[in-house]
Specification:
This protein is mainly alpha-helical. It has one domain: Peptidase M41 (Methane Monooxygenase Hydroxylase, Chain G, domain 1, Up-down Bundle), CATH 1.20.58. Helix content is 61%, strand content 12%. It contains seven helices and three strands. A three-stranded antiparallel β-sheet has the order 2-1-3. Strand 1 and strand 2 form a beta hairpin.
Length: 178
């Protein structure tokens, strides 16, 4: 029953969900994190139990990024994760309600920013770090908006893409990595 409710919700709101997942996928592609697959459809995340209406699977795993030597890549993962809500709000012409971000997006953002700010023990430091990463993500989304539109349109039509299909779609249109 809950799955059917999610499916109805997806049909009513396919545009925002497509842009959300396209934001993740396009930034992951351009930041060389790699995308295994991106899809719209009811999903249960086994890591945190959240039901969601879409999923972008990165080639890079979050556990691989909890290492001081991987800080730049961890920041890129947070930037790609933040791009989903940013692209969705851009499509909706609204502001992102960061306090409402839940599920795997919030888990990735929180886990990686906490890990890389663990030495300062300050909520001010953590907040400033998140604002810095959010600003980077907003700039990337703005610069890559044409790519996000193309991938969102493909998701609306096909509901899922492999990472290779995403890369080929962008390559065919002459939209290369930034």
């Amino acid at each position: 029953m809950y799955r059917q409710k999610l499916e109805r919700d997806i049909e009513r709101n396919i545009g925002p969900y497509a842009y959300h997942e396209a934001g993740h996928a396009v930034l992951a592609h351009n930041l060389s994190l790699g995308v295994r697959a991106v899809r719209i459809g009811p999903t249960v995340n086994r890591d945190d139990g959240w039901d969601s209406v879409g999923k972008t699977e990165y080639n890079t795993k979050i556990d691989e990024l909890c290492d001081e030597g991987r800080r730049a890549m961890a920041e890129d993962m947070v930037v790609a994760t933040m791009a989903g809500p940013i692209a969705e709000s851009h499509y909706r012409r609204t502001r992102v309600a960061w306090h409402c971000i839940v599920g795997s997006d919030r888990n990735v953002i929180h886990r990686l920013t906490l890990f890389h700010c663990r030495g300062c023990n300050s909520s001010k430091c953590l907040k400033a770090y998140e604002v810095y990463l959010r600003t980077r993500s907003e700039e990337w989304v703005e610069d890559l908006w044409p790519q996000i539109e193309v991938i969102a349109a493909a998701l609306i039509e096909q509901r899922s893409l492999t990472g290779d299909q995403e890369a080929e779609t962008l390559r065919r249109l002459g939209l290369k990595q930034a």
